[in-house]
Specification:
This protein is mostly helical. The chain folds into two domains: 63 residues, 434 Repressor (Amino-terminal Domain); 133 residues, no CATH class. The longest helix has 43 residues. The chain is elongated. The C terminus is likely disordered.
Length: 202
C-alpha cells in the first residue's frame, strides 16, 4: 500500500462499515467482485478515477479537489460531521419486506425471460434501496410497488409493466439520494461560512 492510496482505502472501508454494509453487500450494489472490494480496502490496487468516484458515491462520499491550504478546514468539517452525525433510524420493516417481495418476484420472472435487462436493473435497485434510510412513508410506497410487481407473475406479464416498476424504484432511489445530499449540504454550509468570517477578521 502506498501513502497516496492509503487514505482513500481507509475512507472506503470506514464508509462501508458506517453504512452497515458487508463487502458482499457493496459488491452486489457496485457490481464489483468481493475480492476486488477487499483489495481496494487494503490499498493493493490502484483504482481508476472514474471507478473511485462511482464507488465513493455509492457510499455517500464525494471525490473533490481542494486547494491544499484548505485541507485542514475540510478535514475539520468532516470530523465534526462524523462526530455530530445522528445514528440512522431503523429502516421501516414494511419497506424491507416490500423490497424482499419485489426482489423475489423479479427473480421468479427471470425464469420466464421477460425483459431480463429491466429485471436485472430492478434487482440492482432493490439492493441499493436496502441500504438507504427508509421511513414509514417509503414503506407504503414500496408496498404499492411490490403489489404492482407481484401482479406481473401471472400470464399477462409485459415488458411495459416491468419497466414501470423499474421507473418507480428509480424515482424513489433518486428522491432518497437527493434528500440525503441536501441534508449533508445543510449541515456543512453554516460552519464553512463561519470559518470564512473568522479568517477575514484575523
Amino acid at each position: 500500500m502506498t501513502y497516496a492510496i492509503q487514505p482513500f482505502a481507509n475512507a472506503v472501508k470506514q464508509a462501508r462499515v458506517a453504512k452497515g454494509m458487508s463487502q458482499r453487500d457493496l459488491s452486489a450494489v457496485a457490481g464489483i467482485p468481493q475480492g476486488h472490494i477487499s483489495k481496494i480496502e487494503r490499498g493493493t490496487v490502484d483504482l481508476k478515477l472514474s471507478s473511485l468516484i462511482g464507488l465513493s458515491r455509492l457510499l455517500d462520499l464525494e471525490v473533490v479537489l481542494v486547494p491544499r491550504r484548505l485541507v485542514p478546514v475540510v478535514e475539520s468539517l468532516v470530523r465534526g460531521s462524523l462526530t455530530e452525525q445522528q445514528p440512522e433510524s431503523t429502516p421501516s420493516p414494511r419497506a424491507l419486506e416490500g423490497l424482499r417481495r419485489i426482489g423475489s418476484a423479479a427473480s421468479s420472472l427471470q425464469d420466464k425471460h421477460v425483459d431480463d435487462e429491466a429485471l436485472n436493473r430492478i434487482i440492482h435497485l432493490v439492493a441499493q434501496l436496502r441500504h438507504m434510510n427508509l421511513a414509514s412513508r417509503e414503506g407504503r410506497r414500496i408496498d404499492r410497488i411490490a403489489r404492482m410487481m407481484e401482479l406481473q407473475q401471472g400470464e399477462a406479464t409485459t415488458s411495459a409493466a416491468i419497466q414501470k416498476v423499474e421507473r418507480r424504484l428509480q424515482d424513489l432511489r433518486n428522491a432518497l439520494a437527493r434528500r440525503m445530499t441536501s441534508t449533508d449540504i445543510d449541515r456543512a454550509s453554516l460552519p464553512a461560512y463561519r470559518l470564512e468570517e473568522d479568517d477575514s477578521d484575523a
